[in-house]
Amino acid sequence: MALRRSFRVTLVLLPALIAVACVPETNAPKAGNKVAQAVSVAPTATTTDVSAPQPRTATYKCADGGMMTIENLGTSVHVVEPNGASEDLPASPANQSSRYGQAHDAIVIDGREALVMKGGKTPLTCTR
After folding, report:
1. Which residues constitute the domain of residue 7?
2. For the chain, how many structural domains are there in total?
3. Which pLDDT tens digit goes with each residue over 2-55?
């Protein structure tokens, strides 16, 4: 008797388990969901690709009116300031490619912007 009941319960629950397994785990719009498709197809306001890597050499215009050239060497950057002074900053930590610094100086590159921090001075935003 218990075997028959187990068999019936299995037959009833099997389609339910199959249906649960077919539910997608992403938030991607479904084919029949017109509102989600309209929202996902709508153009964005900005077309700048901030995920693009920094070019080998880039010139940045800073908020204080100065210009700065940053040469990306992969594991470090070579910075040439408007007054002609130059400085090499290693990646910090070593396994990434957007934060560079040593001692009291650092540069964080995020898309087309670079945040320049010098010891004892106010952080400065520069744009490519």
Report:
1. 2-41
2. 2
3. 767 776 766 666 666 565 566 555 655 555 555 544 444 444 444 444 455 678
Torsion of the alpha carbons at 99, 100, 102 and 103, rounded to the nearest 10: -50
Residues 88-99 pLDDT 10s: 999 988 888 889
Query: Would you give the end-to-end CA distance of the chain in angstroms?
Result: 78
Q: What pTM did the predictor assign?
A: 0.56
Burial class (CB in 10 A: 0-12, 13-18, 19+), 80: middle
| CATH number where 81 lies | 2.40.128.50
Which residue bears the tokens 């087309």? 112
DSSP E strands in the chain: the ranges are: 57-62, 67-72, 76-80, 86-90, 99-102, 105-110, 113-117, 124-127
Q: Does one domain contain both 113 and 64?
A: yes
